[in-house]
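Input record (one chain):
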Amino acid sequence: MRRWLLGCVGVVVLACGPVAAGDDPFEDAAAAEKAGETAPPCFVIPSAEQLGSSDQIVQYREKFAPTLYQTEWAGWPWLDLGILAGLLALGATMVWRHVHVKRFWIPAALTLGYFGFVRGGCICPVGSVANLSIGLAHPELVGISTAVMFLLPLVAALFMGRVFCASGCPLGAIQELLAGKKPIKVPERLDRVLRWLPVGVLVATVWLAIRGGQMLVCLLDPYKTAFFWGYGWIQRVLAWGRGDLAEPGWFWIGDWTAWGVLIAALLIGVKVYRPFCRFVCPYGVLLGALSAVAFKRRRVEQSHCVQCGICERKCPVQAITRDPETREFTVSTYHCIQCNRCSSHCRKDGIC
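The corresponding structure, as predicted from the sequence alone:
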């Protein structure tokens, strides 16, 4: 067994001629060429006896490891968590202080810029649903930073509702910034049916992740093409600035199908407000469940309400409904994404 293992290691080790323990085959070849001698044939696989102990195998692996590409900075996960916590704090403050909805482009732009393009859209609690599901079967595959990123928006939702949807989610940010000014409302009956789809996606995501390690939510994400393209260009510009190698010509990613899906999703998002968040996102199910029992829940102050219906018309996710008997308006904290549209347009300060 040991000889077989050492032989496999030897396949990936590039050496020249008979290799002695601790010798450099490339230096031997260069010295032979300088002396006018015929260099031994290159890429001779060293035998298990020539490699010797396990320590020497480790040394060979380190010695011949490619050094062309830069390794990723080890502090990225902690920077991600710090920025996510900062965005959640910003969103919670804006909700608490009833900041006008026109200012919510700020956390959306910061979120899209960092988590969308700088980090490529893959550093996101939405995708961590599948990661944590895989961890149920294989706990060793889930890191601490992934678990914390998954839990942080849920903790925020327990206190202030779904502030992550308005500040922190790159998928929500791109939909928010490119949404039309007057989105259409989905018919009530159809909306009730479509709202069950994220529950099904959540169940399927967990099941496929546990059974086969599949990342269903990542496959369903229509915006990843834009994120990867932006990430690729940023990395390319940084490579040029550092003087590193970079591919010449126009940088492109994805095929026509991927770009077609992206364009279709963006066009739908112009007319239907946040279609992915409302009718696909599995993480929204967890956020909504905790928001329903949050300490600070958005509600209509009935003593101030004059039943003008502005809040109901302005709510883009149709979370505000009127009771047909009492004629009073109520807010579904499960569906509310804390966008502040209702409080920004209420003339009587009836939304708190």
